[in-house]
Amino acid sequence: MTISEIQDLIKFIAKSGVTEVEIEKQDFKITIKADPGKRRSMPEMQPVPMAIPMAQAPVVPAMPVAAPVAQAPAVAAVPAAPAEDNESRFVTIKSPMIGTFYRKPAPDKPHFVEVGSSIQKGNVLCVIEAMKLFNEIESELAGKVVKILVEDNSPVEYDQPLFLIDPA
Questions:
Q1: Using a CB cutoff of 8 Å and minimum separation of 24, what contacts does 16-25 make?
Q2: Which residue, of 16, 51, 62, 74, is most buried by count of CB atoms within 10 Å of its CB?
Q3: Global pTM value
Q4: Going from the N-terminus, what domains does the chain have, and what CATH number goes with each?
Q5: What is the DSSP string of 41-74?
């Protein structure tokens, strides 16, 4: 069953008034339960694409530079250029949905990835829980985890940056 089929099923449950649906196929079983009291107050869900890596534009804060000597600004500008190149090569993995971010599959299991971990395309980076469904977020590229931008067990929004990946 694809993510879009699951999302369509969730929409159907929200609109139909059904409180529980259970589907079992050869390789998986899914149970979706709706809280009838909360269903009416929730906004209609929209389908969301899965993690699509996008390059993040570097954020360079404007900083005043005091120049006691005429040559000092040229020296100060040289280190700033490599920092820009360094930041611009990172790819940001963003949240494909609203939910709760988890760095590990279970409380007693190790984290999927750490800062400095080498990853391959298809590796699971984290899990996002939405409506009691645990969605594995997979890497769309190979590289190295540079930064984890979200704390474990915290809420995330759609399109919120989760990881910085160095594809080199």
A1: 25/1
A2: 51
A3: 0.49
A4: 1-44 (no CATH), 48-55+86-168 (2.40.50.100)
A5: TSPPP--------EEPPP---------SSTTHHH
